[in-house]
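Running co-folding for NAP.
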Amino acid sequence: MNYALVTGGSRGLGAAICKRLAQQGLGIIINYRSNESAAKAVADEIIGNGGCASLLPFDVSSEKSVDTALEKWEDEHPDDRITVLVNNAGIREDNLLIFMQSQQWHNVIGTTLDGFFYVTRRVLKGMLTKRFGRIINIASLSGLKGLPGQSNYSAAKAALIGATKALAQEVAPRKVTVNAVAPGFIKSDMTKDLDESTLKKQVPLGRFGEPQEVAALVAFLASNDSAYITGETISINGGLY
Ligand code: NAP
């Protein structure tokens, strides 16, 4: 069976992406860090709708945790392969740079950027061997324009976009595509502390986006219809730049 691995698939955008990719007939590997009940609810919904889903907890920022979990999955699934990887796990630890703690800097870079590196390096081997793969990196508007209070997050997401462009050129000869998606304000746990009624006035479409809208874009990038798109960063932000 062909599988999609979605990091941070237990909540928010990742959960919506898992459910949407399951509708495309992919088996879903739901990664998360600690929230097992949320991940299980996503798996139950997919299985209840006739799909295939399983949980694979690991901390994307830990090389050992990533390698151990994926090695075990590969050993247990000799006839299956991961054809779609969505690097979605991410955290925010906002602070003005002058006050930013080293840990806030490293936590955010570690989850987004180290996480991309450790997980992608591991999964890429199978894609290159089979000469097919779709890698989709969840970046952010913050990585394109920079946002005050988010120098750690903007740096991590901008670097992720750079890595997307570089890797796309490395693996294109093997028919593996690598793209990024850059959401603006999307309703999720990550944005629930924001003042939506004020911030939505900055958005030309006048509202925050839904996780399902990001999932639809990811599903397109994961499909055969996107075969000629690679190295691209697609914004989904209601017109906010
Ligand atoms: P969220 O609701 O806070 O969910 C974050 C997810 O990432 C959870 O599933 C969490 O797992 C997982 N996670 C966090 N650290 C992890 C780690 N070290 N290892 C494995 N999994 C980890 O966030 P979201 O809003 O859906 O955001 C998803 C992605 O979209 C992030 O990369 C974020 O930067 C990006 N994004 C979001 C927005 C927005 O407006 N929401 C805008 C632009 C970009 P647990 O459940 O176990 O904690």
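Result summary
The pocket of NAP is lined by residues 7-8, 10-14, 31-35, 38, 59-61, 88-91, 111, 138, 140, 183, 185-186, 188-191 (CB under 6 Å).
Helices lie at 12-23, 36-48, 63-76, 102-130, 141-145, 151-171, 196-199, 211-222.
Job closed.
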